[in-house]
Amino acid sequence: MKFTRLTPLLRTHNLEESAAFYRDRVGFECTKQTSDWAFVERDAIILMIALPHAHEPFDRPSFTGSFYFRPTMSTVSGAS
User: Fold this and answer.
1) Which one is predicted more confidently, 66 or 34?
2) Paired residues of 77 in beta bridges
3) Which positions ≥6 away from 51 have C-beta within 8 Å?
4) Which of 27, 37, 58, 67 is deepest in the core (most CB within 10 A)?
5) β-strand partners of 50
6) Distance CA 67, CA 25 (A)
7) pLDDT band for position 17 (50/70/90)?
């Protein structure tokens, strides 16, 4: 068995603002969005951003782990 992708689910109270942050500030593309959730993607990274379910307690966003993004910076030929 080979795992090829991991898609973390991030809960938020403001779906539009959260999707815009990843799109406008981090360079992700919003590839699918409904009124309750959105997928944002960049390179091999996919995040799912979603509003909380009514039956789940959700006072504020929280996370019990860490995400580490490892960008590689490409050099432009001829740049100093």
Assistant:
1) 34
2) none
3) 11, 12, 13, 15, 36, 37
4) 37
5) 11, 37
6) 17
7) very high
